[in-house]
Amino acid sequence: MPPDRIFVHVRTSDPISEAGIVAALKTRAEIWITDGSRTTPGTVALIVADEMNDEALTLLRTVRGKGMQQVIAVVSELDDAGLMLAVESGIAGLVRRREATADRLVQVIESVHRGAGVVPPDLLGRLLKQVSQVQQQILAPRGLRFNGLTDRESDVLRLVAAGLDTREIAQRLSYSERTVKNVLHDVTHRFQLRNRSHAVAYAIREGLI
Known about the structure:
Distance between the termini: 42 Å
Shape: elongated
Largest sheet: 5 strands, parallel
Radius of gyration: 21 Å
Order of helices and strands: EHEEHEHEHHHHHH
Oligomer: single chain
Strand content: 5-15%
């Protein structure tokens, strides 16, 4: 296989749909279709379903079970609930079946392979609105953010990054030193980090602070 080709695995519950997608992609110079027995960490999975529902989640679990983390869903219908389910499930690309030409699929596959997320442009506004509602109505009242950190955790990590020790952080935030230590312990445990320096490095790298 030429080194610049992208491994792609197609998974559907409908063999006719699978045959159609495979036929559309297998002649493309950018793509190498794999049956799933030969995958790499960069393999992109393409699942095809009528909707983002239990059927799609079953297909998603199947490809994730084979070690594929970059997943694109091609669906016939996509309502607001399905859109959020796709996001929550970690799907990186969404394509409506009626828009799934070979050219469009290759564009989305290449984008996802590079680490980008792809959502149909007309759905982006709906997605942002739903995210805003979740933040305002559910997370914010609990002091939580989408990045997985609470406001208190973000404040502590920023001060650690600024070079303050536990006593100084406690004084600056009006916490006890035990509270600061507990916050740092919770963060390192949740994200499986070694120590506070590792926690700061991780938070900065991931854009959490």
